[in-house]
Design brief:
single chain; alpha/beta; Rossmann fold
Length: 253
């Protein structure tokens, strides 16, 4: 490893599994002091609810008190809420999904920014989704929450411009995580694992480390001119309207 985050202090939420776990490990390997948090504490994981203002304040204060400040906040924690239709979901369903997926990143921005300003700048990253770009990749509340994240980073990037704090989002496609585990399990049980991700040009699902690599870039100084951006990492799924890639390939090559 090249130490791309050497000397930096980073908070990663949703760090017990999937994208968050891969990102926390990669950040640490690249030299960062990492505060890994998830809704339940575990070995090396601090218990914190990403949608609770008190808990987010606590994480930022921990970074300041024990490590001298904060340079990176990866607001990754999220919940799916399932694939129920609009007519099957309750206002309470929406409130909980929005609380974690959208209010969580808002709280990260609100409380990380002052700490980062004291360090002369920093990078805030939020996990959005291709579901926030177009329909068809998630349930209604989940999709709406992720669309909100995409707009939030644009607004926050504008408001934090004078503080040298960059705010960006990552929009993953289908990635094998705890959240998508049931989809993968059903496909494997039915002998249809090869169909996972078959609608994108790469014709496969992604791995958590592939999103972690994008987060590392946005956390590092290498992305110093990237701000207010929603980086799509989806194997090409969102570049076109749906069509049969297999048939298209026969005419293209």
């Amino acid at each position: 490893m090249s130490g791309r985050l050497a000397g930096k202090v980073a908070i990663v939420t949703g760090a017990a599994s999937g994208i968050g776990k891969a990102s926390a490990a990669l950040f640490a390997a690249e030299g960062a002091t990492v505060i890994a948090a998830d809704v339940e504490s575990a070995d090396g994981i601090i218990g914190a609810d990403a949608g609770s203002e008190e808990d987010v304040i606590g994480l930022v204060e921990l970074a300041r008190r024990e490590h001298g400040g904060l340079d990176v906040f990866f607001a990754n924690a999220g919940i799916s809420g399932g694939l129920a239709s609009i007519f099957e979901q309750s206002p309470e369903d929406w409130q909980e999904i929005l609380r974690v997926n959208l209010i969580g990143p808002f709280l990260a921005v609100k409380h990380a920014a002052p700490a980062m300003k004291k360090r002369g700048g920093g990078s805030i990253i939020a996990t959005a989704s291709v579901a926030g770009i177009r329909a068809g990749a998630g349930g209604p509340a989940y999709s709406a929450s992720k669309a909100g994240v995409i707009n939030l980073v644009k607004v926050a990037a504008t408001q934090l411009a004078t503080a040298n704090i960059r705010v960006n989002a990552i929009c993953p496609g289908l990635i094998e995580t705890g959240m998508t585990g049931p989809i993968y399990d059903m496909a494997r049980a039915a002998g249809k694992e090869e169909r996972l991700g078959h609608l994108n040009p790469l014709k496969r699902g992604g791995e958590p480390i592939e999103i972690a690599n994008a987060a590392l870039f946005l956390a590092s100084d290498e992305s110093s001119y990237v701000n207010g951006h929603a980086m799509v990492v989806d194997g090409g799924l969102s570049i076109s309207h749906p069509f049969n890639y297999q048939d298209y390939g026969k005419t293209a090559f």
